[in-house]
Structures are given as C-alpha cells and as structure tokens.
Structures
1.
Amino acid sequence: MLKASFLSYSLRYALLLAGTAAFSQTEIYKSDIVFKNFETTSLSASLVIAADKILFNAADYKIYALDKASLQPVWEIYTGWKSNTPPYLHDAAFFYGNYEKGRTRVAQYDLNTGAKRKELPFESLQSEPYFANGKMYCTVLWDGGKLVAYDLQEDKTLWQKNIGHGAEVAPAYRPDRIIANAEDDNWFETDYSGNLLKGKTRKHTYIDTVEVFVKEYKFLTHDGKEIMPDFLRKNKIDPLEHQVKRTQSHTFILSEKQLLVLGTNKRKAGSLALETIVEEPYFDPDDAGAILTTNTESVWLYCQKQLIYYDFKNSKLLRRLDLTRWNPHQVRVDGRTIWLISKNDGQLYGLDFEPDQQTADRLRVQAERQWEINNPKPVDPKKIEAAKAAQEKLKNKKNRK
C-alpha cells in the first residue's frame, strides 16, 4: 500500500514538472546588520514592497528603507517594535508600531523620510486598514479588540465597536457597509457611520450591550458569497488553518497542502495539490506557506522553502525555485526580484532569478572588484625601482635650480 501511494505521488509529481524549466537565483543584495544575541528560533521580522522602496523591519527593532533601483539605503529609524506583520501602506505614509516610555502605540510614518508624523491611540492594528474620504477603518487592540473608524485629518475616533477576538479577523469592506467578525464564525454588518444593520437571520449576539443579528460562515469570497466549513473540507482545505486572498475576479484559499482558486459564484477556477510540487513526502509544520502575488490566470506561492509560479487556468507549473539555502522567514516577489528575510541570520536578501545582460555585467564587475580587494596583486620590483629613479631625478633637477 505504501509503495502504491509513493508511485502515485511520484507519477503526479513527474507529470506536473514535465516541460518546466529549472531556474537559478543570483544573489544581488544582502544587508549587513549586526544583531546582538540573534536567535533564529525566535525571529520576528517583516518586509513590504513600498513603491520604489523595500521596508525591512529587522530583528533589532529598526525599520530600514532600501532603494530598489540602486540597492542603497535611504533611511533607518528605531521604533522599539518588531513584528512578523509588515507595515501597512497608505499614500506616502505607512502605519506601524512604536514603543517608547513603556507603552506601545500605532504611529504614522513618512514613507520618504521615515519621520514619525503622529501617534494614534491604538496599541496595534490587527488587520489591514481600509481608507476612504480621509478616514481609516480597521480592527485594533485598544483596551480589548475593537472595530473603529478614525479621522486621520482631525486625529479623533469617530466610533468604535467592542468585538473581542473578532478583531483578529479582517473585515470585508463593501461600498455601503462593513461586514465584521463578532468572534468565532459570527459576522455582523454596520454602515460607515457605525450604525448596526439588521440581517435576515434569527441568530444574534451582543456588541456593547446592543443586540445585533449575525450570520454564521467562515468568510466571504470576492463577490460576497459565503463559504462554509463543509465546502472547505470538500475541496481539501482545512477549515481551521487557511489563508485567503481576494482580487476583483478570484478568491485564493491556501492551506498546508492545497491551493483552491474560486471564480464567480464559488465556481472552481483552479486548484493545486502542493504535495505534487514539494519533493519531500513530509511537510515542515513550522514552514508556513503564503500567497504572494496573483493575477487573472496565475499565482505566486511560497511553500516549504519552494517559490512556486502556477498557471491555475491551464493547470501548469511555470516555475519552481528552491530557496532552501536561504531558509526564508518571509518572502516577497517584485517582478523578477525575490526579496526575503533569512532565518539563518535575520538579514534581508535580494535575489534575481533570471538576470538580463545588464544585471549580469553589473554583478560581474562587482565580483571582479571584490576579488581584487581580497586578492591584491604582488608588487613588481622593477616598477618600484623605476619609481625611485624618477623621484631621484626630480629631486636632482630641483637642487640644480
């Protein structure tokens, strides 16, 4: 029985990889931060691609901004805060934690300079904020878990709802309403003025002592369809351990060993059994996968130290890059460049997985210069004697004058 399963696995793996080219990676950048008492087992760090910059929240409680084109540092700031959740971007600013004087607050920073613009009253942002008309809507920790509306121009909270652990789940922001989690799989609706909306359901709970109607499901798709636990199980997705990414046309769901892509009305647009990609039959539970970037036909995934580019429309593996050497903590893909934080040393790396001639020439010149620095040419005695003779001749000429 074990032999048959292994043969089935090997055959599926071989068929999927058939005709797929192998791609190598060229290291084009490595940070050189000196960490004190670095521990790979407790690494907490994050990165985000911010227009022409890379923001790297390192293990030393600093954020470093790197220019993508020149690969030169732009600025660095000490925040006293580090997290596996990257900064949230908005216009020419970003939001992240700031710890000083014994307390943690969410702060708004200038993207171009790193300067702190203002502090908000919240301890942390629990999900990615939604911005509209100068206002920020988000779930936060602030004397418990809350859904809040905050006026960025007036610097004041417009309204708040106590939702406890529901703050750990990202709300769905619709044109006319916010659909937020009220703990467990219970969801309620409010408008953007904070007015609770009635739903077509008999189930209810209480928020701030007010009775509110809730519906029970796991999450909503990009087109507002409810996803139930049985639907996930049927499609080999763990109902308790999964991540979701939505675009205008698709919903991407990733669990430990399965990718599911849904189109309109929950129609299956594609799927991928990750065991057919990763060669090892056993998965590392500590190496969590991630949905990186998506488009209408393909998706970039990170899974078990493998970077996967998959055409879900045609069920075709386009690329598979082995990142085991760098032992990634977090990975981002930006065009043809891979940015990652390594668990080995906590450093930020930039990899070019398909260098063009210009990049190849630049890397060659850099390597030659480094080699010359590390391997200086031996001194030529004849040149030394010639230099001494020239100096003596010049000295004699001056003496005659």
2.
Amino acid sequence: MVDDVFSSLDGKTKDGLRTSAAASRQSADETVKTTDEADRFLIHARALASLVEYGKAQGLSDEVIAQEMARFGLDDVRIDAFDSFISMSRFAKLIRQFGRLLDNEAIGLDVANPLHLSSLGVFGNAVVSAPTLDVALQVLCRYMRLYADVSFASTTVGDERVFFDWAYSPLIVARDVMCDRGARMFLTHMRDLFGANWVPLEVHLQRARPNDLRPYREALRAQVVFDAPLNRIVLRRSDLDLPNVRTDHHAHEVALALADRMMAERRIPDDLSIRAREDIMHHLVDEGPNMNETARRLGLSPRSLQRRLDDLGTTYQRLTDEARQRLAEEFLVQTKLPMGEIAYRLGFANQANLTRACKRWFGRPPRQVRAQAV
C-alpha cells in the first residue's frame, strides 16, 4: 500500500515531494522535535500500511499522503517484510498530522481498526490462537516488542480485578495518539476473539482529556479515565477464563516457539542513558529523582550506574533535568493540567520551582510557554 501511493505518482511529482520534504522535516509542526533517541523506538511497518489505508478511505489523495509520509521520513518503507520496522515517534506524528488534515481529534481510535492481528506475523498468530483471554494477555506482555517497542507491558491479577498495563516511552512525540490507538486495538481484537459483547470495567489513558468525549465512549464502551500515569485496561478476574472462539493449539505452540526465537534476535533500544531517562520519567511522580531506585530497576549498583553514565558523558542529575524539560513541554503544550499538578508530576516541591526551571529551559515562565503554543 505504501509503495502503491508513491508508484501512482509521476516522476516529477515524486521529485518535488521529496525535495519539499527535505526542507520541511526540520520544522514538522511539532513543538517537541523528533530526535535520534526517539527514533530508536520502533513499531512494525505494517502499522503504517493500515494508516495509509485509513487515510485513503477518508478521502486523502495519494499525493497528500505521499507528501506527509515524506515530510516525516516515512517515504521509503518496506511493508512486505515481516521484520520491517519504522520510527514510532515519526509514525505517531504522521497519525496526528492526518488527524489535523481530517479535523479528527480522535484519529488514534479510528486508525486502529484496519489492522488485523493476522497481518502481524508470529506475534499476531500467537495471540489469535491463544486458548483463553488469560493466555492472550500473557502473550501480549511477553512478546509485545515483536510489534512495538513499548516501555513495558504487564498484567496484575487481584482478587476481583485484573489490570493490563502498558506505556510508551516518554521520548515519543505525539504519544497521545499511540495511547488511543493501543487501547482501541486491544479492545477490538479481544472482542473479536472472546465475544463481541465483551467490555472492560475501565480504560485508563496516559493522555490529556480530549475536547469531545463521545468518540471515546462509543469506541471503548467503558468508563474512561484520562491523564492517567499509564495506560490500563481493567478487567474482571472471571474474564481470564473466557475461551477463544478461534483457538488452535498446534498453531499456538508453533507461534510461541517462533516468537521466542525472534525475541532473541529483535533489536531493543539498549543505550543506558536512554533507559535511565525513561525510568526517571516514569517514576518522577511516585518517588521523584532517585538514583538508587533507578539503578536497582536497571540491574546496577548506584556506583556502577554513575560510572557508566560518566563514561557516556552525562550524569544522573543531567538526565533528570532533561527528563523534566521534555515532560514539562509535553504537559504545557499538549494538556490543560493546572500548573500545580504539572509541578507535582515533575517531582518539584512547589510551583515556584517549576517556574524557575521553565525560565531556564525555555526563557519564559510556564504560562507563557502554554500561551505561545496555543
């Protein structure tokens, strides 16, 4: 599909698109720019195919689609290979741009539908063939990175409720559309496998509350919590035993064996400074900057972490400051959170500390950063 978009254009148009794209990529209308660090986090290229399919179905021309793909550096992508991946950050920004063109704030919900699990190779087949919802969740948590570089995916089983949690790297720009897309994909596929009438108890999204809640209520069919610290689907414990109407024991065993092999070969972002900054971002609210805890979660001693960061030319304090700056820009530009709440989420003792930090980072106080973004 991606190749078809470009092949449908004449050579002069293609050259023009690529030339204009080269000039515009540096200013692709995002407040937070895509960086080499964010580009380390990947998603399967077939996700791009489903986005192109959606755009064409909504009336976007081949030329417009090609221009926007080139703008974000996604104009030379192979979608026919099972091991082809693209930058998740660029993909998320392209979704958001399609949303602007189509005047659709909830586009993340809509672009999830064209993608079928069976198109995702071994990972999709392992989920589709799982005998129960419990096993499907285990597969999702264990093999999610065969599809996308999520920060984590986990299932917690309580006495009456089950929590399926996942998060995308805070380095990903336009993370809100990925949260919407991920939740809709999960619910769509679970209903396909375990019954069209199945609904979760709650859906928590790690994104700002949208202006129009109607698309979320209609698509997710559950109580939705916005501005959540992570993405979460809340299920009943009894749901774990739901049988899969499409289960295939032999296919499931084969898919798991292949998935284990592919996980061993899958490239995972492993730069220590990136992993440390991600950890800081995820835990600023609950514990603030804490090098001892970051080191523990990374499997290092505090001294080893400090030494290895020094070898990389950085420090834990610098990573903390960078993490706070990235999150501050995201909260100020993409959410309507009060300043006191933003200060709290960044691990500052008070709002005055946030104001001083913003003046140092952006040259102006936080309210001006938000006002100028609007």
3.
Amino acid sequence: MTIQELPLPPDNSELRSSSIPGSGIFRQLSQSVAQCKREGVTYASGTWGYTVLRTAQSPTANDLWPSALAKLHRWISKYLIHYERLGNDLADGRVWDELGRRFALDVDVTQPTLADLPDDLARATHEHVRALDAVFEDWVCRCALGGGAEGPAAAPAAAETAARFQRRYNPRFCDFLVVDEGALRSLAELPDETPSVESVGLRERLARRALHDSAYVWLVDSRAVRRFRGTTDGENYDGLMKLSIGSLVSAWFERLWRFEDDRAIFNREEFPEGSGELWYTSAPVGREVPPVDGDTTIPPGAPGYTDYITPLPEGKAGTVMEGTKLNCGVWYTVVEGDSCSSIAFGHRTTVAILIEANGALSGEGGCNEGLVVGRTYCAVPHVAWDSI
C-alpha cells in the first residue's frame, strides 16, 4: 500500500486561522512537512497515521482482518479524532474533520511468518520485538524513503536517504503498530457505526467510551527498540506497549509535538495494577503524582494533563469552587450523581490529578465530599499548572 502526498491547507485558509479551534495543529504539521521536504522525503506528506504490522495469521484472523482494519480506520477518522474536542465542549469541529480525512494507515502486505512469535505479544521477548522492528525498518527504507520503488536499483538510493534522514520530523517513521490475535479480536468487536460528533454531556461520553474502551493495538517505539540493552531506566526501555485506540491520536501528535527531542520516550503505566500490562499514557514522563486514598487507577491511555489553558466558559466565573487552579485545560461543572472517579475517568485523567488541581477535594472527608452540584472545577489541569 502506498500513501500519496496530500497538500496542507494554504496559509490563508480558514482552517489555518488562529480564530478556529485546533488550527495550531496545521502549523505543526506544516513544520514537519517542510523539514521532510528539505531532506527529500515527501512520502505521505500532509497525512498522519501509522504503519500496521499483523502477526495474527490464523485462518480466522485472515477472515477478521479486512473488517477489523476498516473499523479501526473508521473509528479514528470519524469519531476518536474528535474525542478531545468533545471533552472540551468545542462546537466547531472543522479542523478535526479535516484531520480525520488525512488519517491514513500503511499496511505492509509482505508480512513475515515468525514461527516462534507468541499469540499474545505480552509474552514476546525483546528479540521478537527486534524482529518486528526489522520488518518496519525494511518498509521505511523500501517504500517510504525509497519513494515506493521496488527492486535492487532502488536499494542504494533508499539506503542513502535512510542514513541521513532525521525521522523525528515525522512520527510515521518513528513508531508503528502491531496487531496480534487479542488486538485483532478487540478491533473486530468494535461497532460498525461510530457515535455522533455533536457535543454531549459527561454521562453520554462515558457511555460512548464503553463502545471502544476494550479495543487496542500494540505501539512500538522503533528507536527505543534499537537502543535498548536490557535495562529499563530513564530514556531506555524496550519500546513495546499496549495502546487503547482512544489514545492513538494522542500518541501520534505527542511524538509530533516533541520532535526536537530525538530520544523522547513515551510514558507507560501498568493497568490493571499488578497485571504486568504496560499501556501508553501521555501523562508527562517523570511527573510524580502523590498517592491518595481511594480510586487513583489511571485508565489506559489517560493523558492526565493538557498542554493548553482554556479560559473559563462564559457565565461560569461565579461558580468556580474555592481552591481551584486557574491554569486549567478542561473545566467541568458538577451535576447530580457525579463522583471524583466518574469526572476523572470521563476526562481521561486520574483522581490524584483531579485532587491536586482542586483544593476543595483534598479535605478530610475525602474527594467526593468536596464536590458540590453546580460548582465548576478544573477537570484536567495544564501540565505546568503549579509553575506558570
């Protein structure tokens, strides 16, 4: 499969206007496109997405694969691209509609058969992961950096480009997805139809989340795989993690936003606790959250913080609860039946982070005792809420 270049909206386009919510994404994409073109790489320019490797090779898997892949693409491009926008109650979805149109998965049809690869990648050794990375590396050199050319004549040019190209400028060349038997079944169980992208209340968002919450793929940080030497510390880890499809958008754009750090790694959290299963979460690496009593589990893919500050919604200034931090990305007004867990998990953060952003929730009576119907709280604080 080959993805063609898709020109970005011009500078004078409405989608690039600072008055349109989310327009900054295109400025970031433009920088990525420009840098890649300076180095002679235009493959899939103007799009975003991943290469997908499939290790599930059983007859049943072969039957499920076309439908599962189509569902993954549909849920990301039609609904989950809007997930953060909906959480912030932003009505204008034009930028996210356009981003959905630009989502493209590259499926390598030359899948190798790795006889000793376990059905569940949770049991994979680092050698298994390195073997998968070798397939990805072959794809990058052969298709992406080689311009899609095949045969011996294309190899020298591709190798030369690969040697000098700074892959960090395009996440498509840094990370890839793998679908094993479990991931394939989870994708196949997704509903055929995606929910509406109109703004809805928290309870409805939680109900909709249940439709896709069990669907996942494996995310592989290719550069981390190559530099790993068996000891996990700091920037060294084996590069393998589960990725909830609800966090796929976050993972790609986190890599794009952090392109200047060539050795940036993803944060991984064990969920459920004690399971040994490591999930991608875009909570800032190294940010320690103090333990609190009660439910502090991080749901798979929870970002935890935002990288932007949102002004208080019109008419809400008088409802902000005392002790609430104003360096906030997402605001929320409590309704009957809310709990700290429902608010935190509904906004893909943690109870611990919710408490640190809202002083009224840290009283002796516990977090839930600090919730008052009709009062507004910071549901998701800015990552540097305590230092800016």
4.
Amino acid sequence: MAACTSFVKLNASSSSWIGQQSFNQRACAFPSRSRVSIVKASSSGSYTDELVKTAKSIASPGRGILAIDESNATCGKRLASIGLDNTEVNRQAYRQLLLTTPGLGDYISGAILFEETLYQSTTDGKKFVDCLRDESIVPGIKVDKGLSPLPGSNNESWCQGLDGLASRSAEYYKQGARFAKWRTVVSIPCGPSALAVKEAAWGLARYAAISQDNGLVPIVEPEILLDGDHPIERTLEVAEQVWAEVFYYLAENNVVFEGILLKPSMVTPGAEHKEKASPETIAKYTLTMLRRRVPPAVPGIMFLSGGQSEVEATLNLNAMNQSPNPWHVSFSYARALQNSVLKTWQGRPENAEAAQMALLVRAKANSLAQLGKYSAEGESEEAKKGMFVKGYTY
C-alpha cells in the first residue's frame, strides 16, 4: 500500500510540519478495526535518569560552564600571545592553573575539556577530572572533529566526527566525562543555504542521540557566526530557522530534551554592522527567539560569547536574567572567561595566584549575571575590549 502522506515544511522559519493530505480524508482513512500505534524509541537507554540529573546539576543557579576545549592548535595561538611555545607541557601548565583554582566551583558547574586534557593530571599526579569533582564541577568533553568544506554549498562548512563517536563516547564516560560538546557553525554572509542548515541540524541530532546513548549530556551548539554587516533582525530570522530545524531533527532522533543543554549564539547584529545593539535590545531579540523555538523541557541555555568582550558578554547575559525564564539562562564562555587570565599569567609561575584570582573575578561576574545582579562598575578597560576575529576557528 502506498504511503498516505508525505511531509512538507510550512516555511523556512517555522518548526511546524503538515501532511499534504488529511488523515481524515477517505483516501487515507485507516480501517476502524486496525488502529495504528506509534512506538517512540529512546536514544538514552538506561542513562535517562542520570542524564536528567547531570543536566540539572550543570544548570544550577548562579553557575555556568568554563570552556577550555580549544584544539592544540588554537591553544597554541593563545599561548603564543603571551610568548609561550605550543608544547604539551605548556598546555598542561595553563590548564592546571585554570582547573585547580580554589573556589571555582562556587561559580562554575561544568568544564568542557579537550581530549588531551581529559586524560591529563596535575604535576602532583592528581587527575584533572578529580580536581573538577572536588569543586563539584562536572567534567565535559569536546567530541567533534572540526569543520570541513561542505560540497554543494555556498562556501559553507559541515562538522565531522560521527564516525566512531559511540566508542569514543563510551571511553570518555569511563574516564569521568559526563557531558559532551559538538560545535557546528552557520554563516549568514554565506546564505545560509538550506543544505548547510539541514546538515548542521542533522549532525547535531545524531551526535546528541549517540551521546545520550553513552551516558553523556549533549550540548547542542549551532553557532551563528558574528561575521557580517547584517542587522539584528536578520540574525533573528536565521536563528529561528536554524533552531526550528535543530529541534525537528532532535525529535526525529528521539533525543530526551530533559537531558540536553543548548549553547546558542546571542541574537546580535553582525560584527561589522554600523550600529551596535544595547544589552537590553540583544536580550529582547534573543529571548524572543528562544521562546519561539526552545521547549521548556530543556533545562539550560548556556550562551557562547562568540568574540564579544568580557564585559559585553556579561552585560548581555545579565539583561536576559532581569525576569524569570522557562530555562536556566547562563554562560559557556571560553575567551570571555580566559582573556584576562592569560594576560595576568604571562606564563610565569609567580603570577599563577593572581591569574587564578582573575579567573574568579570573571566567573563571579558571570555568576551574578546569571542571577540578574551584575553591574559593570569598576570593570577594567582591558575587559571591555572586543575579541571578535573574522573567520575564527577553534
């Protein structure tokens, strides 16, 4: 028997799907004696309760995520900015400084690690994952394999890493990781093309299902790049389109929404747009997009900073927490937490304590922003400097 209906998307920015013919029409009516039941599969297996608990732990009041999952190449660029060579010893020293900061768990609930870091220890032999657990910080792991050109697109990219992901995720879980991150990107100046959006959404959904099946809470991150001179209204349009597609495929892959976290871009004008938006405007557009697209079952929205200055990222987060939201609205920052730390440290052991204090200052500022209680009074000029890099790669 031929299928009764095929499914067609209503429009580019809608998450609604309808059949071309009604199931009530005679041609498609099922016989009354043979009722059809649809059995929903689950991607998370026996881990569902643990996934929900982990996600709630990360999405706890006044806390957010420290992202230190830069690839070795990108970490090398950070080290080069303070005159250090890109060696494993130097990468380990820098990450030890971050992960052994006393009191970090007061403001940080999760830390995203690069694979090298997940398996490293301090110079005293203590595993980094144990350093995090002692501060009640959940260890996480970057699992994607980076971006590659997408054939047939408008000079856009797709994210690699699904091959072997299940076995790698199982090993990461054994090592102590309890959540995962997969970053793909969407470029507004390049379209975005329907192909690129669909590829991003499908890849994120497959990754999320595989992660949950292996006990890892997936962070879903389709980063809409700041590159471009478009207005904030265009960013909103694209963000709604992307997140509609993402949640459609998450549902198709039977991902448990209560066991995921999101890492969206804030809805801002393009970095080269002639007019900057205020934190209040960014909050208005961003929350509008989230309310239209994100189910309240999702426990946490952990924003990326995307090249904003340390202060900008914190002010924008604070503006979004001036009234209650259906989800925990917080941060998952890399550069916006680390920039001051690096410049304070300079690779010198005698500066380690001051650098850790700089990390606590930024972490506390964003903790206050998550609670809607942050003020930029007293912030340094250095913290106000933007960090946008055109075509930035991790």
